[in-house]
Amino acid sequence: MTAALARRDMPDEVTRQGSPEDARRLATLVRECGTAGIGRAVLLLRLSQLPEGRTRPHHLQLARDALLPLTGAARAQLFHLPNQDHVVVWRGETPALRASLDTLRHLFSDDPSFGPDPMAIASVLALPDDAALLHHVIAESLRPRTPPPPPRGAGQPLDPPTLLALERAIAQADMSRFARREPICRAGLEGFRLAWERRYLSDSELFDTILPDRAPRADLWLFRRLTRTLDRRMLSLLAATEELRGVPPFSINLNVASLLGPEFLRFDANLPAALRGQVVLNLHPEDILTDLASFCFARDFAAARGYRLLLHDVGLTQLALLPPTRLGFDCVQLRFTAPLTAEVLPPDIDPETVILGQADDTAALSWGRSQGIGLYQGRIARLPHRSGR
Amino acid sequence: MPGERQLLEAARRATQPAGAALMIAFSQFPAPGPRQHHRRVARALLDDAAQRHGGQVYGMRNSDIVLLCPAAALRAPATSRANTQSLETLPELLTRLLRPEAADGFAPLAIWPLPEARDRLLAYTTERLADGGLTPLDRAVAQAETPLGLTAAAEARLLPDLLQRQTAVQIGGTPRLRPLFREITYATAALQAEAGADPLESDPFLLRHFATRLEERVLTALPAEVGRRGALDLAQGPRLHINLAPESVTTDAFATLVAICRTRRVGLGVEIALVDAAADPESFAAARTILAASGVTCVIDQVSLLALRLSRPAALGPDLVKLEWAPRFAHLTTAELRDVETAFAEITPARVILAGADSEAALQWGLMRGIHRFQGRHVDAMLAASRIAGCPEAAACTLRQCIERASAVALGGRVGCRNTPLLDAGAPA
Lengths: 389, 429
Hints:
The complex is a heterodimer of chains A (389) and B (429).
Chain A: H1 2-6, H2 12-15, H3 20-36, E1 40-45, H4 57-65, E2 77-80, E3 86-90, H5 96-108, E4 122-127, H6 131-142, E5 156-157, H7 160-172, E6 179-188, E7 191-201, H8 203-210, E8 214-215, H9 220-238, E9 250-253, H10 256-259, H11 262-270, E10 279-283, H12 285-290, H13 292-304, E11 308-314, H14 316-321, H15 324-327, E12 331-335, E13 354-357, H16 362-370, E14 375-377
Helix pairs in contact in A: 3-6, 7-9
Chain B: H1 2-13, E1 19-24, H2 36-53, E2 56-59, E3 65-70, H3 71-75, H4 90-98, E4 109-114, H5 118-131, H6 146-156, E5 163-171, E6 177-186, H7 188-195, H8 204-225, E7 239-243, H9 246-249, H10 252-264, E8 268-273, H11 274-279, H12 281-294, E9 297-303, H13 305-310, E10 320-324, H14 334-347, E11 352-355, H15 360-368, E12 373-374, H16 377-390, H17 399-407, H18 411-414, H19 420-425
Parallel strand pairs in B: 6-7, 7-8, 8-9, 9-10, 10-11, 11-12
Antiparallel strand pairs in B: 1-3, 1-4, 2-3, 5-6, 5-12
């Protein structure tokens, strides 16, 4: 289950491709059940059969999320097939099946384009009896399909003149409509509790709006330069009088140069006393390594002013290369990916200082808990939570 | 000069007990001087202290900053507003922030208790008024047109004009000075000069972008130079090292270069900047695999003293690590030395190249720690001296000429040398 579930953390365009490996694993399982006469229940979710207009990323995500209750059933395994179909296999009866089916019914029942039976995309099967049907589904999922249209933003990388124009546009645009918040939650026995919010500008939405035919992230260094402009705009948004009144603790992404810039100093001067010590600054590895002397200066200044520093969005390789404690970080956001489930946290990393990022499903949560990690960012941390620390 | 005049007036009035002046001597910072953010942040901290304790901050035209305040303000925690446990005072904090950039023995702060040291403050202020502010104030940050300037500069210049060569050597063994490889690098300084860009203050990201583009141009240009006996003819001289971003290693252009090197029996090394490897570890892992499979040396480049102390280059599993020499290596504190030794224990000195070795002190420091690979201006001079000693055509050549011709890639830079095979070989066989 873990590998299949874990793949859901991938970007949507990747997720839509599914995994041939999952198809092979499911085929093996179906074959073994047939050979040994092992009984298993199966829910087949045929997202490949969704009508056009219902296959946007959020539709698919909602449908996939509807399967989550089932993943807690006995011996549950989730398979994501290459054609978007999903299969959950488990042992015995579970009330979660009803929960999943109800969610799916509500999801599609009000759609007139869907046809007479919205539940036709979801079938409950049984192994070994339905082994032949499942083999057919697997084979169908592996057939080559018409290549999907390129995702938005899959155009040319930025070049310096375009970058300059983009910076000017961002400097003048109303950025408040791109401002977003997402929770960083602490997982406990009673569920998730808000630890702090990450406040950021949605660059993907911004680029889709003002530069849809370019791929600003394709050139790492020009993109990083662009983030300095975004930093300034984020800080200017936070400078509004009402913006920081009565808000919970929060984090913001910054470049080192931005942390030492006049906009941040104004932000610092105006930070309400109640938030002093409650703000986390997220820094990126490539940024700090670009100018380590400035990073050290910024780190010491930020610490003196009561900010916590977070090494943002790193994998295990980066964690080994950049030991957070040696660099003076208070915490680190580790990016969850499927291969991580085969790894363990390095012994010199205190799990109390780790936020598991892109934790979109129970596989992430399960691995995080096994490592002693208590803080999560991602879809799983967007479940209803209680405010306060 | 309102700051100086206001400070003079305030100094004359500073007769009340229990006062203090704190002066940050930015104008006296050792070369290359303070960065813009040093002054900006220090000013913010002084303004905060002045606001909390009833003081006044004065900016001098020579870039110094003076805080007049109650003496108690300098004994209080620097950030009492902050929700932290820090009890560090403002002078302690400023000294810690500003000292790492300063040379040994330089004190960035002066504190004058008032009214006892009022004469000292008055003398200082009078000096500032007299010198009229000889040091300009902050330059404008990051010219907006820098990207366009650099683009134009990079596109307008012929590739050889932007490149240079430098040979690394092994010291010790037989012969005592043995060329190991010749690195083709881009002359960032030439590009910056052309565009009027300031590398650190304005835009290190932009320069990394252009560096990557230039490296790609080198990669595609090298095959055409084979057999032309020019400065980029990889068939001439020792092993070839080029700088690449990890993703460039996965390109067809690199595969072509590897094939040519194999045919010509030329050793090849790829130097990947630490920051590039850290920025994209997946691409780096793929690059390292390709390099290992191709028999190409993988070097982690641009590892500074700070990077050696704060990161673990050995975690990337390179064949070699290129450490950038700085004079500070000769005066390491106990903690710094401990960090360096820890890093060396992991990397092993045998896998370290000490780059930027511009003095005998660098060589001595490295040799004492078991390093035998060196690159830098001092090595250039040693190689040039050995070439001149062994060259029948060198009667009219100076050491400097030989160094410059060996580093030049553009044809014009090699003019005057009548023994280019020896020039390209690095040293007599």
